[in-house]
From TrEMBL, chains A, B:
Record's protein name: OsmC family protein
Species whose genome carries this gene: Leptospirillum ferrooxidans (strain C2-3)
InterPro entries in UniProt: KH_dom-like_a/b (IPR015946), OsmC/Ohr_fam (IPR003718), OsmC/Ohr_hydroprdx_reductase (IPR052924), OsmC/Ohrsf (IPR036102)
């Protein structure tokens, strides 16, 4: 396993070690606040703008332009299909999260990843969303993830890496465990 | 409140009523399976492709092209900033979901929405993701949502609408309550 290059798996290993060391010495640097702003367009269509966030003790202003994410529903769910729907976006968030955790931890362990693909699916009974049944939850009943990795590491090393990736995954934690959500509607 | 137009709030009211009626008479139509495919690019960067899904008793093939969502991390989190990160994508999913539920229920109730914006923020302690503390959860400690609505409806009508929108929101349910996730890593 070649581990002397500066950016194995495309990750700056020195910066990764530096971040871990910095947070160990000052845990307040680990406090992050992420934000999103959403504007309704029409029907099921809305646009989310994501740019600034707080972290490492300061406001981050490195993004010169915001990211804009479209949300909509497909025609069968009465939308105009301008973007994936909200529960599809959850699958994206989960995949993206698991990838980052796996790649960062692989890099820290000196494991090279040649390629990686994830397949995700989630089952949902629309009776909950339609308000037709109080006993049917509106969200996913279950989600399945298959991660296919090409690597010269052993199967045991990869399984251990996968276990760690799940343990430290923010989005997997958000999905598997309760997160308090405080909400407020204001008439303007 | 004008409710005789065919698409109040940009929602096809006849289709909405038709969907509810159809699912009431055959609840199996409400079973949906959503999917996502993610491919790692390099470092924290991955791309999620979203296209087909199963619902209303059949595979949906209405989308001629897939949606592609980019996931990455900002520089301070060792990424190349090719897209919002995974926990920011969660905020987008939540916003998009609440908007759809609110607009559909408003339409069913004959409430017109003139405009709507949502502000979301979530607090996260990176010590969990970095594996530096077993007592710090990797996911959000809490999320706040403020929904600002312009409408001629009364404040009481809008608050009731907001309550319903939360009760039937798939993504809010996924975030507030546990969802089982089955995962598997395969070496290829």
């Amino acid at each position: 396993m070649e581990n002397t290059e500066k950016a194995p798996n495309g990750v700056n290993l020195e910066a990764l070690i530096g971040t871990v060391t910095a947070v160990k010495s000052d845990p307040s640097l680990a406090r992050f606040r992420f934000r999103a702003h959403n504007r309704w367009v029409a029907g099921a269509h809305s646009k989310t703008t994501i740019q600034g966030f707080y972290g490492t003790g300061k406001e981050d202003s490195s993004r010169k332009n915001p990211f804009v994410l479209e949300g909509d529903e497909p025609p069968v769910l009465l939308g105009g299909d301008a973007g994936p729907n909200a529960v599809e976006a959850v699958l994206h968030a989960l995949a993206s999260c698991l990838v980052v955790g796996l790649v960062y931890n692989a890099t820290a362990r000196g494991i090279g990843i040649d390629s990686m693909e994830l397949e995700l699916e989630g089952d949902l009974d629309l009776q909950g969303f339609l308000g037709l049944s109080k006993s049917v939850r509106p969200g996913y009943e279950g989600i399945r993830v298959i991660c296919r990795v090409k690597s010269s590491a052993t199967d045991a090393e990869l399984q251990d890496l996968w276990t760690t990736s799940q343990e430290i995954s923010p989005v997997l934690d958000i999905i598997r465990n309760p997160v308090p959500v405080f909400s407020e509607l204001k008439k303007v």
